[in-house]
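Researcher: Batch entry, complex prediction.
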Amino acid sequence: MYFLLSLFFVPFTHAVIGGDLNCTTYNGTAFVYTPAAVACDNAISDASCAVLYAAPDTLYPAAGNDAERAYACYTTATATPAAVVPDMKQAALTNCAKTCGFCCQTDAYNCPNVQFPRLNCATITRSQCDSVTWRTIIATDCPSACGFCNQGGCVDAVTNCGNDLSICQTVGMQDFVNTYCQRTCGRCPSTTASGTATTSSGSTGTCTSYIADSSTSCAAWAANGFCTNTFYTAAQRRARCATTCRIC
Ligand SMILES: *[C@@H]1O[C@H](CO)[C@@H](O)[C@H](O)[C@H]1NC(C)=O
Ligand SMILES: *[C@@H]1O[C@H](CO)[C@@H](O)[C@H](O)[C@H]1NC(C)=O
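Model: Structure tokens for the complex:
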């Protein structure tokens, strides 16, 4: 009888994030997920992730809750306390980062924010990430909050500029694209990675795709001015971070 009762009640009263506290914050009484923990999309379908990483007690990680992650998100063990098994965590990060509440550790979300951000990076919501008002400020100050780590501080203020690239050249649209389509149209200040698309395009002019970065640190380097630093030749910058620096 006790066993049956405990089956019903224990999971609901003892939801606790165990094993790995990445992407969580302490709210005063419990560790809870940050908005960035679940801000990304799963690489495979949500339905498949729900099968692979079924919530131990029906509640899945969400911003502000303390749902227990599926064990398979981080360990091969089947009971807590469970040691983190790096392979298991890597598989979860690659396929089902959202279902496992690990979004903050994926590449796009895993970079430093500025030292003194103008807003609290830990409380930025998904709707702010899509907001015309917030996006450019967040890209500069809190890139990790919205998955802007690979954007070098340069994002479009609106999210669908790419639908019609001709607007970048349309005479009557210049005020608009300068304000809202900075990244797509290469109008960011040259201190950001994408601004260099216009200033350093001397390499080979315009192109629509770039060779892959050969370093995983390009986002951080770009934030420190690597893309525009003439200490390095254009060829060196292209060899390391062509995509991040948008060098043809
Ligand atoms: C966060 O993740 C890293 C890499 O998986 C791990 O080494 C570290 O112990 C984790 N930190 C916490 C607080 O769980
Ligand atoms: C902290 O989070 C837990 C779990 O979601 C919740 O029950 C509790 O009320 C929260 N505490 C505060 C101070 O917000």
